[in-house]
Amino acid sequence: MSRLIGYLIRFAVILFGYAVASLAASAFLNILFLASLGYTPEHAHPATASLYFSIPFVALFVANFAFMPACVVILIAEILGRRDWLFYALAGAVVAAVFLGLVDHAGDATFAARNTSAILAVIGGGMVGGIFYWLSAGRWAGSWWQSGS
User: Fold this and answer.
1) Which residues contact 125 (CB under 8 A, 6 or more apart)?
2) Whether the Cβ atoms of residue 140 and residue 83 lie closer than 8 Å to each other
């Protein structure tokens, strides 16, 4: 029974980490978008109110689009017990690249990124999301099965 509770707790931590990663990637993409429009810290006040809505809203899209590749990466990290930040940063970049490849392969012109700066922004968002996943959940990867052995 206690092992089952440990599994459920780890699953909840993974879901929490995924939510944190999605919010962090969304915040990164929102800030890059505002910077590309010419907003600087001096101009931040008018844009701050829109960020309260747009960051969680865009995080829903980030979480939706990255779900399947992220599940594979999280499963691999849990099985291998990877706990280093660099693994998660690079894995986030891979998840973002897989997303870009799937969107391009599907021919969905709405979400396809053909501009180099947009591609790099999405990959950078994946890296930020990976680092924030590591901060919130990845540092204890594999603990659910390694402590029981």
Assistant:
1) 25, 26, 28, 29, 32, 62, 96
2) yes
Single-letter code of the amino acid located at 111: F
Q: How far apart are alpha carbons 120 and 126 in whole angstroms?
A: 10
CA 11 to chain centre: 17
What would the two tokens of residue 59 be? 């995080």
Q: How far apart are CA 37 and CA 91, in angstroms?
A: 29
* Chain segment 38-90, per-residue pLDDT in tens: 777 676 666 677 778 889 999 999 999 899 999 999 999 998 988 899 999 99
The amino acid present at 143, given as its one-letter code, is S
DSSP state of 140: G
